[in-house]
Amino acid sequence: MSKVGIREVAKLAGVSTGTVSRVLNDHPSVTKELRARVTAIIKDLGYTPDPSARSMRGKVSRLIGIVIPDLTNPFFAELVQSAEQAAANHGYNIIVMTSFDHAAKEADRIKQLTSRKVDGIMLVPSNDFHTLKLPKGLPIVVVDRLMPGYSGIAADHRNGVRLGVEHLLQLGHRRIGFISGPGHSVPANDRLRGYLDAIEQADDRTPMAGPPLIAEAAFDYESGRSAGNYLLARARNERPTAIFASSDQQAIGCMRAAHDLGIPIPAALSILGFDGIPLASMTTPRLTTVKQPIQDIAAAAVAVLLNKQTAPDLDNPILFGCEILKGETTAPPQPD
User: Fold this and answer.
1) Which of 58-67, 150-159, 165-174 has the lowest mean pLDDT?
2) Strands lying side by side in the sheet with 213-216
3) What's a Gene Ontology MF term here (predicted)?
4) How far apart are CA 247 and CA 229, in angstroms?
């Protein structure tokens, strides 16, 4: 049986091959009724477009490139998985490359993806993105770590942290420690500002017990464990009754530090994470965390790249709200 071609589909539908192509590319100019008719014929005939032939004609490659700093980070892994699902919903595939959080490698990965004629790139920039120059003429959406002058999509890190601090304040905590991310990280600085905002506003209502307790750390488990040891290595009436970590991995490391020091959670210490990665629900006790809407962020980035959604204005990114996933690691504080 010979392979069905686009001409057979067009003939049976009574339209031009160009119209069939527009249906396949989900072009907005095609009416709903016509799209349904052509799609039904495509399904009946078992027609499958030849992606290599379309690429040779200079059409879309149906490939989206994704560049992330680190594939071992659970947040980025979930972001990639969500982007792959969103791309598949539009008939696209993805190519994933890692920059190892280095601008020179990042530039090389973008160059490789451009040479493969991807239809767009979803980029989580390295922390030294200031040296990066993005190519012109190729749709690029910056995700999570926003870059001035480029369309960006991210969670509202600052307000997400404020939401988490408010949760701890409502429980009655007045000595709230904070494990910030690395100082050169855009999301980390936004989260730190959110913490300081919430503490300052709380101080206006009910005086906090002493100055802010802050430890800077990388976003990983071991750094969270070290930061937890630092914050908890003080007298009981001086140490925090709650610790808010800038990532779930940090929070889990902090839980280990508390365990090693014999501090029960949440009876003597509340711990709150940020990200909402699946691992947060697997800890004992189950981690309470501020969840980023990772699937929404990935879907919006793919939609912008494929012109299904208007790109955000430069320096005016799309910010998605966060929510608290209540687990078992937060409770009212004990009396000193």
Assistant:
1) 58-67
2) 213-216, 176-180, 242-245, 270-275, 288-291, 323-325
3) DNA-binding transcription factor activity
4) 16
50, exposed or middle or buried, with CB in 10 Å at 0-12, 13-18, 19+? Answer: exposed
CB-based contact 266:285 (threshold 8 Å): yes
Phi first, then psi: give them for residue 335, nearest 5 degrees.
-65, 145
Pairwise CA distance, residues 87 & 60, whole Å? 14
Please name the residues in contact with 111: beta carbons below 8 A apart, sequence gap of 6 or more.
135
What pLDDT sits at residue 1? 36
> Using alpha carbons only, what angle is made at residue 86 by residues 327 and 117, rounded to the nearest 5 degrees?
135
**Angle at the Cα of 75 from the Cα atoms of 91 and 171, rounded to 5 degrees:** 130
Which candidate, 187, 174, 177, 118, places its Cα nearest to that of 147?
A: 187
Model pLDDT, residue 209? 64
* 145, 124 contact by CB (below 8 A): yes
For 30, half-sphere exposure in the C-beta direction (CA atoms, 13 angstrom radius) is: 20
What pLDDT is stored for residue 232 in this prediction? 96
Amino acid at 251: A
Give the N- to C-terminal CA distance of the chain in Å, as an integer. 81
93 vs 65: CA distance, rounded Å: 9
Q: Is the pLDDT confidence value at 56 over 50?
A: no
Both tokens assigned to 331: 């409770």
> In angstroms, rounded to a whole number, what is the distance separating the alpha carbons of residues 316 and 143?
13
* pLDDT tens digits for range 231-260: 999 888 889 999 999 999 999 999 999 999
